[in-house]
Amino acid sequence: MLSIALIGVAIGLWTRSSNSETPRNQTGSGLFISAKTLTENALPGPGPLFEGADFDTGLGVPVMSNVSIVRGIEAGEESRDSNFGSNPNVNDATPTIEMLPGIAHPLQVAEISAAADGPLWKLFVAEGDMVATDTVMALIDNRVALASVIAAQSSADRQAMLEAANAKVSLAEQYLNRIEQAASKKAASGLEVDEAKSRLSEAKAALQEGRESRRDAIARLKIEQARLETYEIRAPFQGTVIKISPHLGETVSRGAPIVKIADINRLRAELYVPWVLATSQKVGEVVELRADLPNRPLLKAKIVFIAPLVDAATQTIRVVVEIENSDKQLPAGFAVRLSKTSARSDMH
């Protein structure tokens, strides 16, 4: 028993002498036991006490003595030491500027809607077809409108009536001349002269009425022809048919989409470029884009517009670019970014 007590006193004195070299924690109570102190004062070699149990300092401060904790602390210190001086603000490194991608849209897209009610009577194109400007792509049933055009054409075609009215005017003028000559020789009375003048006035009035009636008929014909054209679905520009909404024979209402076409010969994208990069670009300049495409990650594009204003919230400038696609190899809708995305600090 006495030997056991002496061993306990010796262990206590040895523990206090070891802890006297440990720095005190200035921000809290008690002693701060570092990982270095633990590893230096621990019993040499691996053992149950060192591997998993609580290590008692003799001052009532239990410390986990797991090797993984010690190694983790030392690894953290080495990581901090190795990263010292890696701050881009400290070193003169080139910072990378991140920017939102733009979407490469077709240069022109149009969804042509029906301007009249009726069943879809004829389709002259299919999806994927190339169409020229003003090509009739589909036709809504226009037979009633066509009949109205024919009737208006008949009313407007009054050339024979106008020629007859002109002939009556000429005869009335000749008759009046003869009557006036006869009256000058006392061979015709004043009443006959008045009748000849009245006949001429009537002929001229009939001719004017015919002209006005023909003008009205021509105006009605133009209206009917314009109404007939509302049954036609025409291409507003050269492009590719990318969608046909209704089926043949299906009744469509005014304003319902019929055919959608797109001009994909050129693609257009809007990029919001950091001003430190946008100020060095010019309209007409060819730039390189990074594209989200599997086979063509890099593309050439031409700058067609640079906004004169800087967005105060994002410090970016809107730059519009166009991508040549005359071979139709690029599908519209992919994302693009300006490949030049870094700027030196002296550009700020």
Describe the protein:
It is a single chain. The chain is of the alpha+beta class. Helix content is 37%, strand content 25%. The chain contains eight helices and 15 strands. It has helices at residues 2-19, 35-41, 48-52, 67-82, 143-156, 159-184, 190-229, 275-278; strands at 54-56, 62-64, 102-103, 105-113, 118-123, 130-131, 136-140, 232-234, 239-244, 251-252, 257-274, 286-291, 298-306, 316-324, 335-338. Strands 3, 4, 6, 9, 11, 12, 13, 14 and 15 form a nine-stranded antiparallel β-sheet that branches. A four-stranded antiparallel β-sheet has the order 8-7-5-10, with no helix packed on it. The relative contact order is 0.14. The model is unreliable at 17-96 and 342-348 (pLDDT under 50).
